[in-house]
Amino acid sequence: MFQYDQSKFSELAEDALRIARGLGASDCAVDLAESTGLTVNVRMRRLETVEQTRDKSLGVTVYIGQRKGHASTGDFASAAIKQTVQAAYDIARYTGQDEAAGLPDPEMIAQAGDMRDLDLFHPWTLSVDRAKKLALRCEAAALDLDEAIQNSDGASVSTGSGHFFSRNSRGFSGGYAHSRHSMGVAPIARDRANADGGMQRDAWYVSRRSSNDLASPESVGVYAAKRTLARLGARAVPTQRVPILFESPLACGLLGSFAQAISGGALYREASFLVNSLGSQVFPKHITIEDDPTRPREFGSSCFDDEGVRTQRRILVSKGVIEGYLLSSYTARKLGMKTTGNAGGSHAMRVLSSKTRAEHCLDAMIKKMHRGLLLTDVLGNDINYVTGDYSRGASGYWVERGEIQFPVEEITIAGNLRDMFAGIVAVGADELQRGTKRSGSILIESMQVGGK
Fold this sequence. Notes:
The chain is of the alpha+beta class. Helix content is 23%, strand content 38%.
């Protein structure tokens, strides 16, 4: 599957380090990666595109004292590596001094005993023909569910595998293989009850480390079609303040907004409304947020971060109080703190509530809201992280007396992230993973809905 193995990567990395030392670099880090992928797209029961990829890269970061230079190449030949290291060194020579620049402190670096198998690599031997058939089955299940489903933005099946290796001059050495497979479809329905024949679109996808964990093509297609059909007849609602229930995928996005607000880059630049928030009560007491890179098969799981710093499960929010930030070595030094093993961002974040019970499915959350908006889609990204102001175009379903009444579109929702976090009433048991975030649906006490 791969042209290179870890031992070859280790050899190439050592060559680059040797060249950097020979030039006079005080420190150096080398990252090598290789990946392969296949994506097949179909539309209206016909093959549309096939994309096959094979990539490789070598990146070199050189330090001369506290001056830093970086260069990369896709050529692993000895001459190309030498040229890349020289380029990184030359950049460092003319870069200004930065007191925060440098590799992680030695005591923070992951050692052999920190390495464990997190079950992240499950290659899928998938031919173009097989991928095409799976995508066609997924789309057909959506198109055949109801006559109102008259079009499609297409269905896709993709598989990707890769491996990487990192080494630096302070003793770190590590790497692993990983995989990611996904399937999705976006049906389009025509509103036959509407004289102007309005159209609605929705989509659904699944993504896993192992293809064995993917849902069947038919179940993905049928669910996407049901979501699309449910949007027919959508209309706006009057402007008002009401409770908002973020469906699980959007709740994961809300968790991502929190990750951005406590990231070191935003904090040291004072570009976050959560500057100096350690020890502050930002969420209700029933909320806990963890970042756990130790979970097997999880997107974001790893024994070390992008700098080679060892990782561990961390509680970022305990009983609503912020207990930790997401810091790299550089941003930690800028803040006068220590790295948290989050170079590259969060690993596998998850929001939990002490009030959540197994029976708190989405229907139960809707009943708990009683009256308000079930939010299922947002448009744009108008979030001001300096102030926390949040405003986005939105669509979803209007709820009265604990039951969905009709679909809603052409509205906006607005609030402030600080108020939204403080106003979390409940977290559902309908937990879903999107990227490196996990969350159930999140009920917020009150937000502004802008409509007709």
